[in-house]
Design goal:
Elements: H1 2-18, H2 25-64, E1 84-94, E2 97-106, E3 112-122, E4 128-139, E5 144-152, E6 161-169
Antiparallel strand pairs: 1-2, 2-5, 3-4, 3-6
Helix pairs in contact: 1-2
């Protein structure tokens, strides 16, 4: 970023001197607006990189989980609401969405190499504003892991509550 700014200064400074510009203020204002534009673009690139990483992780997870054959699941393997503790959840609006951070504790007697969760945010009228899947690797029995997940196109002012659910694990 500094290299670009220095390059712009050295490219605009000689031209303003050769044109007889005695006041450097317009040049500095242009440089400032260029720096803001570059900064804004870099934030957008970072947001796109995070979205791409999320999509790649989701595709990797789908490719690594084998197709399950249709069969009945014994009741002892069903997950109850007490099987995972979700704690210290915070959320903040970033760029065009909301980032949730917190901790999940596996209270089951199972070790999960991959555990898939779903976060859903609800509007004030009870309808779903948005949702996103996320996974946590190596969530062993009675262990705690941190998570960070972004809900795109839903700012924290636009929803009233959220729900985080365990979807499946292997």
């Amino acid at each position: 970023m500094k290299r670009i700014l220095i390059l712009l200064i050295f490219s605009f400074l000689p031209s303003s001197i050769s044109l007889g510009a005695s006041d450097p203020q317009p040049v500095l204002e242009k440089l400032d607006s260029l720096e803001k534009a570059i900064s804004n673009l870099s934030f957008r690139i970072l947001a796109l990189e995070k979205r791409i990483i999320t999509l790649e992780e989701r595709l990797f997870l789908e490719m690594t989980i084998p197709e399950k054959q249709p069969r009945s699941i014994p009741e002892s393997l069903e997950q109850s609401g007490d099987d995972f503790s979700i704690e210290d959840v915070t959320y903040e609006t970033q760029y065009n969405g909301t980032v949730f951070r917190g901790r999940i504790t596996n209270n089951t007697n199972n070790d999960f190499q991959y555990s898939l969760f779903k976060i859903t945010v609800y509007k004030k009228d009870g309808s779903i504003a948005a949702s996103n899947d996320f996974y946590i690797l190596n969530l062993d029995r009675h262990s705690t892991r941190t998570f960070e997940v972004k809900i795109h196109d839903a700012k924290k002012e636009e929803f009233e509550r959220y729900l985080i659910e365990f979807t499946k694990g292997s």
